TrEMBL record, chain A:
Full protein name: FAD-binding molybdopterin dehydrogenase
Position of the signal peptide: none
Molecular-function annotations in GO: FAD binding; oxidoreductase activity
Domain FAD-binding PCMH-type, residue spans: 1-222
Species assigned in the record: Nonomuraea aridisoli
Pfam families attached to this UniProt entry: CO_deh_flav_C, FAD_binding_5
InterPro entries, per the entry: CO_DH_flav_C, CO_DH_flav_C_dom_sf, Diverse_Substr_Oxidored, FAD-bd_PCMH, FAD-bd_PCMH-like_sf, FAD-bd_PCMH_sub1, FAD-bd_PCMH_sub2, Mopterin_DH_FAD-bd
Keyword terms of this UniProt record: Oxidoreductase
UniProt xrefs under PANTHER family: XANTHINE DEHYDROGENASE FAD-BINDING SUBUNIT XDHB-RELATED (PTHR42659:SF9), XANTHINE DEHYDROGENASE SUBUNIT C-RELATED (PTHR42659)
From TrEMBL, chain B:
Gene Ontology MF terms: iron ion binding; oxidoreductase activity
Sorted UniProt keywords: Molybdenum, Oxidoreductase
Keyword Oxidoreductase tagged: yes
Protein species of origin: Nonomuraea aridisoli
Keyword Transmembrane helix: no
Name this polypeptide is given: Xanthine dehydrogenase
Domain Aldehyde oxidase/xanthine dehydrogenase a/b hammerhead: start-end pairs: 19-135
Length: 330, 748
């Protein structure tokens, strides 16, 4: 492991100031991904600023029915908070289906949003990878790409974003709050995740020294009947082949509102706006869901080993919408 | 007198393990300890053009950087032989860092020694190695034009071809034929403890703490490679965190640790990283198998042709032998088993739990399931109809039990009344299927004489020793049980000691042979000591047993007594104190039967599984498994059940999850950690029932046939046959990944 310095701070301002001043400085929250990446030599900070003492752990109601989740709230705390489980069951379920209990007890919400891809070529530290070493090429394009994305890909990167909870947050238009050298910002979560394009090393718009302080979930009645389904090779402690966050409002047999987001198949947590639009006004039937799913995946670009994901994602969407229309997780 | 054997006693090392008191090799702390880190080659084929160690050498705490340019030459390369033989057992007949050639990715090209583990790891990342890349072959698909038939396997131990009768004609004439080909991804062992070695030199003598399944193999191999007298090499292994074959052979890092320690003049600990375990201790090779069955209409097998193709290293003809069971299990006149190989740029593959036969039986038992469908015969009945009464030489089995396993398994599982039609049972989105397979695994007698020593002290407590090692199987516990019974002592009075080559010699604990051979040696030593003390008593004029027939004396709770007059006798302690003996000691040995023993040698079992398959999403959930086994005498049912259940979990895992793909462009494995190489989590494992069928066996040691492998054999086939029953689709690859299992898209 590379030698590095460690500092522990107690205010947001101090944290931002120290990291901003050191080009190779980085924040350390739960550390469940970051320490791995440091040990692998993939992340190469000279200084880790431990932010776990910052007052960013609370989960609070917002006027009007939304919820604010502190960036340092742990995944397990958020999942068991009644207001999350009650108003946003898809979010709670996404959290519970991620990682393992031990990791969920440690991993922070802000860190979860910033976690890096599990692409083996990114993590091995030696293969060409545009995300790790811009301009070196993408080993996954013609390599072992079973786990890779079919949506939002570019010729420079096809790595999936691994977060589960981000998929649910994207479905419900969460807003990311940050504090940085230039002040505070509010970033709609769908803008928080950047498609790889020709800069796959840049995954979000955070500037150096800018820290996530909170995540707001706006009020959304439809979320109360949301579901999060995750399909993977083994039954726990694994990233998704495909996951679906879905919520549907049905009146007189017709879909009047729909939220749909996918994990495991996109280069970013994938809000399925094409499918959502297609569903509006459609009969709440498996046929409509399948048509919407096909529409969403019509833009898919599969590679040699992940072709199955195009079909699998469509089937998963139908399952998700069907279950959501039946009343959600409960 | 038989009180401890057969009882489900707790592990003698259980407390130490759950409290952290058990010290594993990488936890051995020594004064002046330094730490070594291996730099593995990034290319699979070519040469090291240059090594620039300047950045590494200037990093904090670095003591040395060794490369092919400054590492001393080895004294000699021992030949590759399985460690069970009791000879030197290098995992491969190639030792790295002797020249600039690179034969496989991960091959050690440099070794860094530093004051701390972290410093060594960091400095290893700073060693700049320039390579010249040459073309490589790292997968079967790349080497199909270079296939050759292996003459001998396992370092010359086994023939590559096994045939009898005229299989071509018999298949051509068979009224019913089943033919299929299978592809199997490579497997890695993933023992929880990555291999580690700590090397200490003192006055030209070497002590190695090594995480190995065979301390003697480590001693012999390292002594040979370094040209040391055997008396100058001592190997100590107290606990090993799992082996599964990965620690059955002595891999290069062990000797590199010794060479590094000699170079820096201080003790060196070399602990492989998790990623390095995928390129440092062998693997189950990527392979293809084809099988043809010929049968009569009434379901009698007439011919089996079973071919295997796999990839090995450039330096060894290694293949897991896959035809040892398919050639013997069923009564079939015409048989042909052939192993073909491709030389490739991987390290030499090695034993992986259930070596060879686990996939050989998968192929055989899947074909039998197909034959059962073809004929409309119940799969259990088809096995019963064809089970051989003797081995192919006409020798009776040392013990059998297959039919009883099949019948008991069918009963416990609730097999009878099964509707054989595929895709006939549904539960919501899930299709339900059941499947079964016969299981068999060879009993191997390649080991030399095994020895143990038993000592009783004047207070009636005992120490029994042999040079085996505990790697999770429970051998410390069963050997204590065997010693206690043979000496006639309570379990608490016996301490069993192992894990040191200064103790009497036993071979590596591999091939399901560990418990049997260790127990046999311990039994011989303890019995010899008891007999000696009894003889001493009956010839001692002051003993109440004076003049008695030794055969009329039994020992219980440390007291020798007449069997038919128990009130007459005395304790070991009484006798020894009177005779002023502080202790008494005997060495005992057990010699395996010759390879020509006129007996068939297989362990038998039967496996049953129920699965639920979601054909839309390609998901498989195993709902329950039943395994029934006839492993001979069961020394400790608690430990045996655990080991068999663990084997069945391995089988489930092999069916559903395990596989490592090669990125042939880079010549590197796709998975190099436990996040990428999937093994089951608790949520994947259903209710598992393990049952025993008792068989008497007087050929194998103490009647023990072993439980190390048989639990795994057949389990994957039972699962895959259940998947066929559920879905009506026969899948020809493992693992059964979602993309294979999901129904194909409706054609548009």
């Amino acid at each position: 492991m590379r030698p590095l310095a460690y500092a522990r701070v107690s205010t947001v301002a101090e944290a931002v100031e120290i990291v901003a001043a050191d080009p190779a400085g980085a924040f350390l929250a739960g550390g469940t991904t970051e320490i791995d990446l440091v040990r692998l030599g993939v992340a190469r900070p000279d200084l880790l600023v431990d932010i776990n003492d910052l007052p960013l752990h609370d989960i609070e109601d917002l006027p009007g029915g939304g919820v604010r989740i502190g960036a340092l709230a742990r995944m397990s705390e958020v999942a068991r908070t009644p207001v999350i489980a009650g108003r946003y069951p898809g979010v709670a379920q996404a959290l519970l289906l991620g990682a393992s209990q031990q990791l969920r007890n440690m991993a922070s919400m802000g860190g979860n949003l910033c976690q890096r891809t599990r692409c083996a070529y990114f993590r091995d530290g030696v293969s060409p990878c545009n995300k790790r070493e811009p301009g070196s090429g993408c080993s996954a394009l013609d390599g072992l790409n079973r786990g890779h994305a079919v949506l939002g890909t570019s010729e420079h990167c096809i790595a999936t974003h691994p977060s589960d909870v981000a998929v649910a947050l994207v479905a419900f238009d969460a807003v990311v709050h940050t504090a940085g050298p230039g002040g505070a910002r509010r970033i709609p979560i769908d803008d928080f995740y950047l498609p790889p394009g020709d800069t796959p090393d840049r995954e979000n718009p955070l500037r150096h020294g800018e820290l996530i302080t909170a995540i707001d979930l706006p009020p959304a009645g439809i979320a109360e009947r949301s579901v999060y389904l995750k399909f993977r090779d083994r039954q726990s402690y694994e990233f998704a082949l495909v996951s679906v966050c879905a919520a549907v409002r049905v009146e007189d047999g017709l879909v009047t509102e729909a939220r749909l987001a996918l994990g495991g198949v996109g280069t970013k947590p994938w809000r399925s706006r094409l499918a959502e639009r297609r569903l509006l006004g459609a009969p709440a039937t498996a046929e409509s869901y399948a048509a919407a799913a096909a529409y969403e995946l019509s833009a898919a670009v599969p590679r040699r080993h992940n072709t199955f994901k195009v079909e699998l994602a469509q089937r998963a969407i139908v399952r998700g919408l069907t279950q959501a229309a039946r009343g959600g997780m409960r | 007198m038989n009180t401890a054997i057969g009882r489900p006693v707790d592990r003698v090392d259980g407390h130490a393990k759950v409290t952290g008191g058990a010290r594993y090799t990488a936890e051995i702390s020594l004064p002046g300890l330094t730490y070594a880190a291996v730099v593995g080659a990034r290319i699979p084929s070519g040469r090291v053009e240059s090594v620039d160690a300047s950045r590494a050498l200037s990093a904090g705490g670095v003591l040395a950087v060794l490369t092919h340019e400054n590492l001393p030459k080895i004294a000699g390369q021992p030949r590759l032989l399985p460690s069970l033989l009791g000879a030197a057992a290098p995992g491969q007949s190639f030792f790295p860092m002797q020249d600039a050639a690179v034969h496989y990715a991960g091959q050690p090209v440099a070794l860094v020694v530093a004051e701390s583990h972290e410093q060594a790891q960091y400095a290893a990342s700073l060693v700049d190695v320039a390579y010249r890349r040459e073309p490589s072959i790292t997968a079967i698909d790349e080497g199909r034009d270079r296939v050759y038939e292996a003459q001998r396997l396992f370092g010359g131990l086994m023939p590559g071809r096994d045939e009898r009768g005229d299989v071509g004609t018999a298949l051509a004439e068979a009224p019913v034929r089943i033919e299929a080909g299978y592809r199997f991804a490579a497997n890695h062992h993933n023992a929880l403890e990555p291999p580690a070695t700590t090397a200490v030199w003192e006055d030209g003598r070497l002590t190695l703490y090594d995480s190995t399944m065979g301390i003697r193999a480590t001693q012999l191999t390292v002594a040979h490679l370094l040209g040391l007298p055997l008396s100058h090499v001592r190997v100590i292994t107290h606990f090993v965190g799992g082996g599964f074959g990965s620690k059955a052979m002595t891999w290069p890092h062990v000797t590199l640790a010794a060479m590094a320690a000699r170079h820096v003049g201080r003790p060196v600990r070399l602990a492989l990283t998790r990623a390095q375990t995928y390129t440092s201790n062998g693997h189950r090779e990527e392979q293809e198998q084809r099988i043809s069955l010929g049968a009569t209409r009434d379901g009698r097998l007439t011919a089996i042709r079973h071919h295997k193709l796999s990839i090995t290293s450039h330096f060894d003809d290694w293949a897991e032998p896959a035809t040892g069971v398919s050639s013997q299990l069923y009564d079939v006149e015409h048989y042909e088993g052939v192993h073909s190989l491709i030389h490739g740029n991987t390290m030499t593959p090695t034993f992986t739990r259930g070596p060879g036969e686990t996939l050989g039986v998968f192929v055989l038992e899947t074909a039998m399931d197909e034959l059962a469908y073809e004929l409309g015969v119940d799969p259990v009945e088809l096995r019963l109809r064809n089970h051989a009464r003797t081995d192919p030489r006409g020798n009776p089995w040392s013990s059998d039990g297959l039919a009883e396993c099949l019948r008991l398994g069918a009963e416990r599982f609730g097999w009878h009344g099964r509707d054989p039609r595929p895709r006939a049972r549904r539960d919501g989105d899930w299709l339900i299927g059941t499947g079964m397979a016969a299981a068999a695994y060879p009993v191997a007698f390649f080991m030399p004489e095994q020895r143990a020593r038993a000592r009783v002290y004047e207070d009636g407590s005992a120490v029994v020793q042999t040079g085996t090692q505990e790697f999770g199987t429970g051998v410390l516990t069963v050997a204590t049980q065997v010693a206690a019974d043979a000496l006639g002592l309570p379990l608490e009075s016996v301490r069993f000691e192992a894990g040191d080559t200064d103790l009497p010699n036993t071979s590596a604990a591999v091939g399901s042979a560990g418990a049997g051979m260790v127990s046999a040696a311990v039994h011989a030593a303890a019995t010899a000591l008891r007999d000696r003390l009894v003889a001493m008593a009956v010839t001692d004029a002051d003993s109440p047993l004076h003049g008695a027939d030794p055969a009329a004396v039994e020992v219980a709770d440390g007291r020798m007594r007449l069997r038919d007059r128990p009130e007459t006798g005395e304790t070991y302690a009484d006798l020894m104190i009177r005779r002023r003996l502080a202790d008494a000691e005997e060495v005992g040995s057990w010699t395996p039967p010759p390879l020509t023993t006129p007996h068939g040698l297989l362990t038998f079992g039967a496996q049953f599984a129920e699965v639920a398959v979601d054909p839309g999403l390609g998901l498989i959930r195993v709902r329950r498994m039943t395994g029934v086994f006839a492993p001979g005498r069961v020394l400790n049912p608690k430990l045996a059940r655990s080991q068999l259940m663990g084997g069945m979990v391995w089988g489930l895992s092999q069916a559903l999850l395990e596989g490592n793909e090669m990125d042939t462009r880079h010549g590197r494995w796709g998975a190099s950690n436990l996040g990428e190489y999937l093994v089951p989590v608790n949520a994947d494992i259903p209710e598992i029932t393990v049952e025993f069928v008792e068989v008497e066996d007087d050929v194998v040691p103490l009647g023990i046939k072993g439980v190390g492998e048989i639990g795994q054999v057949g389990a994957a086939a039972a699962v895959a046959n259940a998947v066929f029953h559920a879905t009506g689709r026969r899948l020809r690859r493992l693992p059964l990944a979602a993309e294979l299992v999901m129904d194909p898209p409706a054609s548009s």
